[in-house]
Amino acid sequence: MNFRTGETMRTALFVTCFNDTLFPGTGRAMVRLLERLGCTVDFPLGQTCCGQMHFNTGYQRECVPLVRRFTEVFEGYDAVVTPSGSCAAMVREYHGRVAEVAGDTRLAAAVRHTPPVYELSEFLVDVLGVVDVGAYFPHRVTYHPTCHTLRMLKAVRQPPALLRAVRGIDLVELPSATECCGFGGTFALKNADTSVAMCADKVRHVLGTGAEVLCATDNSCLMHIGGALTRLRTGVRTLHLAEILASTEDEPASAPRTAEGGAHR
């Protein structure tokens, strides 16, 4: 999809249950950013989970009502934008598989007609055609490419391009950036020792950059790494890409953060 200035696009925010529950500020930042760029963003109140956690844990049939709900809630929009590479990947890559497992031809047809779902950086760069979004963030930042954004969406160039265009930023490369942080949803619960070891490696690389802020496109991974950074009292904070891009001189990004708790604040 290519968008041109002057066109009207019906855009919906799929905030994801993780962000809605723990990091609602990311959704608010997305809306501020997109509206600043001239977009009108709807937030369908009927949205629920995309089913990723269920699907990845082996409960594929239990995903069917969630997939059906997704197709109904977002029907009629031109584009759906989300602050989660992992949830975008679930919708794009696996909703069709859920319908196939269920043997539901009507659901399969509905999935095929679901509006395109974009992770935020994809939408900005590939749909709106924007790299410089007018952001200002005078801090030393390093970027962690989360696994789903990197490997499933193949959104390799978009986040760094957007960050490089931010005024005042000192963007430094993260060593071994493509290594998983160890979160992996339920993986971190089922394989805690391995997850902690992987996170320790990631933290070591982050600290080696001297960055003030670690940025990514998924708050789930940022929460995992950020927890370790906080426990070690490193002083390094984590911010979602949306919050850095929404930051301006008049309305700078928030102070150090943890999970915010509570929805729709």
UniProtKB/TrEMBL annotation:
GO molecular function: oxidoreductase activity
Annotated ranges, domain Cysteine-rich: 12-91, 141-225
Example of a GO cellular component annotation carried by this entry: cytosol
Coiled-coil segments on the chain, per record: none
Domain of life: Bacteria
A Pfam family hit: CCG
Protein name: Fe-S oxidoreductase
Naturally occurring in which organism (per UniProt): Streptomyces lucensis JCM 4490
